[in-house]
Amino acid sequence: xxxxxxxxxxxxxxxxxxxxxxxxxxxxxxxxxxxxxxxxxxxxxxxxxxxxxxxxxxxxxxxxxxxxxxxxxxxxxxxxxxxxxxxxxxxxxxxxxxxxxxxxxxxxxxxxxxxxxxxxxxxxxxxxxxxxxxxxxxxxxxxxxxxxxxxxxxxxxxxxxxxxxxxxxxxxxxxxxxxxxxxxxxxxxxxxxxxxxxxxxxxxxxxxxxxxx
Length: 213
What we know:
The chain is mainly alpha-helical. Helix content is 49%, strand content 4%.
């Protein structure tokens, strides 16, 4: 719907800044690389795992209603829903996120979309219907902005977008500045390049930031 496209446009317009709340450790950005079903560029698409914002296949989409009966034996194959239940997902964030601030950032992005004069044009421009990581679609890939590749780059993006996040006092200037200082303090600018081929250093980094159990 146009309403959903407007919301998506707003999220994409400030997506680089949203990573400051959704990807808060250096190892977050080691995941966001091509050919790993992880987003690297600012775009959206249907059922497309190379997109930052993805509209997954809905169980109530045309031709897929039998999924309800398959997953829930008490429902018959004739079960139909006349409500519109399609969702979309923001695929960059990970368990390092500050969940409360991330949800607030999503709200800011969606509100921003409804305040943009050209939201539907932005949504159209950033829509992809191909796997942008395949060689035959490299021209389309070149048209899309990159997500930040480190906490440092995420902090710089938040600096540029801070006025949008601070509008209506959703985020205070102190909160934004503290987030920027925290991310810059991780000293991970160009970390992927620095760690290339250094498996032992990568292992130490993972041990430092990822804890299981």
